[in-house]
Each structure stands twice: as structure tokens, then as C-alpha cells.
Amino acid sequence: MNSIGRSGIRRTWPEHASYCSRRADALRVLSSLVPRAGGSGLSAAAAVRAKRHFGTCLGDDVAVTMTAEGFLSALASEVPETQPVVRGHVEDCDELLLHLLTADLRRYAIDIFASGQSDVLRRLPGVIDRALLLGNDYVSNPIAVSFVEDSGWWDPAMQPFIASWPPGPQAEARRQRESRPS
Q1: CB under 8 Å to 39, separation ≥6 — which residues?
Q2: What is the pLDDT of residues 35-91, one digit of tens each?
Q3: Which of 79, 80, 53, 47 shows the shortest CA–CA distance to 135?
Q4: Which of 8, 26, 27, 108 sees the fewest Cβ atoms within 10 Å?
Q5: For residue 116, what is the DSSP state?
Q6: CB 165, CB 144: distance < 8 Å
Q7: Residue 34: is its pLDDT beyond 80?
Q8: Any idea where the domains of the chain sit in the sequence?
């Protein structure tokens, strides 16, 4: 059975439940960014920038998600060290193929993990985490498949790398592990 959301997008009920859960998580992240009385939280300007980056809730309660352009923008601004990877991908493919770029970013993340570049290793998974949580299907699917699944979560040698991820990608790896047939 299908559901048609306010946006007119047809989803199966499991897809709709997943969308609602991800959307609720995104809204919780956004609400935590709003400045609070007494000075805790982000400044108003920082909250506006974060809402533009993470997404926002508009008019009829429709969540604006991270697009491929937003993902590339986040990489460029937060992890500029990834730009040679992005440029190399576009030169090789003549277009943006997000599954392939995400696989390139996974290999890059594994390399920086092995070399101990902890600053980059904190920033890149943060962008990956937000893209998984807030990305539209064109963004979140490549993250789930070409970054998380292809990282080899079943390989004990990959566990230290996976343990360095933020909660979102770790939860996705756990979900994939638990849904794997015995």
C-alpha cells in the first residue's frame, strides 16, 4: 500500500515511516541549534547558517533536505582537503556520480584514518553523518551503500575505522548488520 505525502511523492508505508523518523531526527538536530535564553546554544547568526546547511522546516511543515549540491558545498567548506578527490572524480567521470564519489571519499577516509590525520577524520565523518541523516534519497543512499556498507562493517579489521564514525553512520552499519540474512 502506498502513501502520498504533502509533497506529492508516493512512498510505501515502510519508506514513509523511515522518512518520518529521519525527518524527526533532523528537526531535533535543528531545534538543538536554536539559541536559548541565558546565552547557551549558538549565536543567532550561527543558527541561521546551520539551518541553511542542515535544512529547515518551511511553511506547511515540509523539511528541506540536503541535496547533492549541499553535500558538495559542505565538503568544500568543512573539509577542503577533499576537493582534490571531488575534482578528480568529476574529471574522470565528466559528471557527478554520487555513488562513485562517495566510494572515493570512503577510500580517502580510510587513508586518512590509517595516516592518523585526526583533524580531517573528525570533520569528514561529520559531513557524512549529516548527509546520511538529512540528505534526500540521491544523497543518503550513496552514503548508506558506497560509504557505510562498502566499508566492510563485517570485517574485524575495519572495526577501529568504523568506531571513529559519528552515531549516524554507526547506526546505519548496525542496521545493515542486523538486517543481514543469517
Answers
A1: none
A2: 333 333 444 444 444 444 444 433 333 345 789 999 999 999 999 999 999 999 999
A3: 53
A4: 8
A5: T
A6: no
A7: no
A8: 1-64, 65-182
